[in-house]
Amino acid sequence: MNVNDPRWASIDAFVEENRDNILRDITRLVAVPSVEGAPEPGAPFGPGPKAALAKALEIAEELGLSTCNADSYIGWAETGTIADDQKFLATITHTDVVPEGNGWDADPYTVRVRDGWLLGRGVADDKGPSILCLYALKYLKDSGAALKYPVRALLGANEETNMHDVDYYAEHYPMPAFCFTPDAEFPVCNGEKGGFNGEIVSPKLDGIQLSFVQFFVVSVLSTIFAFVFEAPSPDQFRAAAVSIAYCGIMSSGVAYTLQIVGQKALDPTIASLAMCLESVFSALAGWLILGETLSTTELCGCGLMFAAIVASQLPDKKKV
Ligand SMILES: [Zn+2]
Predict the structure, then answer these.
(1) Inter-residue contact 135 to 63 (CB < 8 Å)
(2) First and final C-alpha spacing in the chain
(3) Enclosing H/E stretch for 5
(4) How far does the centroid of ligand 1 lie from the alpha carbon of residue 128, in Å?
(5) Which H or E run includes 128?
(6) Please, which residues have CB within 8 angstroms of residue 30's CB and are 6 or more apart in sequence?
(7) From 25, 36, 78, 96, the catalytic residue
(8) What is the pLDDT of residues 180-217, one digit of tens each?
(9) Which residue in the list 36, 159, 160, 165 is annotated as catalytic?
């Protein structure tokens, strides 16, 4: 629908006409506390979610919609009965809530209006959107809009904990061709496809093999570029033979390989910290063995870099 479509005016009129009823029905639904409880016969998520789902379906019926309660796991409303083999669209919201918690200055289950905001547990997540979906269906039904696909407004009862409402639906009923959810921060949140928790691990690697490949690649590339950019002579090689041998065999070959092998068993944070300390060790060794000293400015620079290295390697505590 583009912005000039005349149907917008009829939607605006519908909202205006139903504003008070919408607020009243949000209040009615919020008034049913629906935190998950111990399962009971006929109430798989406890009495609260069962009662809230029943209340939402009662409201849907008052709006003239067809409803279905799937054993108090989940329920839905639709503009007319949808056949099992019919393609349909769906919205999904939920009527269960998270525990009210502390800090309320009034009853969390009694909706209040303050500064233009509705206050109450579940107003935004997700009882308000649940009622709005039902009214959207009422609009479609009352306006007699010709729909290419019928719409089912699913009302879950276990979203806040385990999503077993959706599991139950998926097991027993046909899936919609397309579904969106006006949950919580809609329109920022407009779909829920489940979560993924996992650990991505690279295949196990032989440390010695890895360091050999690294040395090989680096030495081939370095040799090529040495001849491209410089003109090394045999005399130079002879003069620097001891240094080259020490650097190649001890520093790179032995020390680096030991580092790779040792690193494998270390916690990644500690490993990267230890590696970042390379320059600190070299400064200390330069002072101890070669008698090199640093000026005050250089020492300040070292201190700054050290602080930055430590800060960057601290584990992120904000991650949830
Ligand atoms: Zn939610």
Answers:
(1) yes
(2) 40
(3) none
(4) 10
(5) helix 128-143
(6) 109, 110, 111, 120, 121, 122, 123, 127
(7) 96
(8) 888 867 666 666 666 677 888 887 778 788 888 988 99
(9) 159
